[in-house]
Automatic annotation (TrEMBL):
One of its GO terms (molecular function) is transmembrane transporter activity. InterPro entries: MFS (IPR011701), MFS_trans_sf (IPR036259). The keyword Transmembrane helix applies. This is MFS transporter.
Amino acid sequence: MPRPTPERPVPQYVLPAVTADTLVLADFRPRGRDRPPGPYRRLLSVPGARAFTAGSLLARLPMGMFGVSAVLMIAARYGSYALAGAVTATGLAVTALVAPGVARLVDRHGQARVAVPAALLAALGSLALVLCVRAGAPAWTLFAAYAATASAPNTGGMARARWARLVGGDAAALHSAHSFEQAADELCFMLGPVLAAFLCTAWFPEAGTVAGVVLLVAGMLLFTAQRATEPPPVPHTPARAPLRSPGMPALLAVCVAMGAVFGAMEVVTVAFADERGHRAAAGVALGLQAAGSCAAGLAFGALRLPGPAAARLPWCVAAMTALMTLPFLAATSGSLLLVSMALFVAGTATAPTMVTTMTLVQRRAPEGRLNESMTLAVTGLLTGIALGSATGGWSADHAPPAMGYALPATAAALALLLTLTGVSGRVGARPSG
């Protein structure tokens, strides 16, 4: 370590060189009298972090595109939101079944060896859906094609696993990393619907899905090329499955309810905007919801909160429940502008809730099965999104679109009930053994 001089201050952080077999650890403690950089700048100063983050963002952007793109192109070609909602719900349900197995393979064999072929298979499924819709094929082919996209790997989970390896010994840095990744998720959900709606309406109905395929493959190739930060595979995982960890089933039930909030909100918002002749504006409205969540996530990650995450979760879910009533109240006015503003405000409760949930999931994860455990949480979300999409599609076809906003508010209330009865007293203790 160099001696401090007026011309040569002490370095702020110790960041050792990275090789393929080196575990990178960053010392996040500020030194010297200068003001230390912020938590996110410190995270991105870890060698290799910016490269895998760029690939992760590209690969995750289609998350916010595929659902909206599928709803728009199927509704445009077949004239049924119920069919569009059912197709996307089926694909998400299959993903909920397949994703944990893909994540288990990632843990055992490594991210690069599994994620690339899994992403390519999902891309082929999306292209098959485009061809079926373009040709006006029977409805059952849409379900089969969209189900083939279930192999898409959980890029967010893999990125979080990398952060756990890089800064896992620093609780404050790990909290910032989880918040950063949640904000990245929300950024993708903010930009994805806007981009998908623009492409599907300005070009042709299948353009959003085609663009999503290109981004998924390119981003996954870039992400997996960063081998220095990739967690080592664990061929022999512990016998205990993540579902057997104390508190995990209750957390997954909460994830299902929260997923229903997101799934119903997406379909109902598209239908609400379409009824008013502004289908493309649905992407903007959903993007504003994600923008509120993204901003709240970044602010939440910069905080140093006292107490355990288990004690914070009920408060986060309660705030989400209260704010999810705002879009319903705004929809009764019939104004898409008011609904968009309400979605932005409601979104501010999403990221803190998800960050806290993912923190608890990581603490419950058995050793060597981190990516699988995080993917189980995503599986719960996808299951809820599938239920919410199907219910929202039915509501859009059989009830006034404004009434559909009661669905996400109800799902949020269910998540609060599950949190109070199943999570609060169970996830605070560490598992034995």
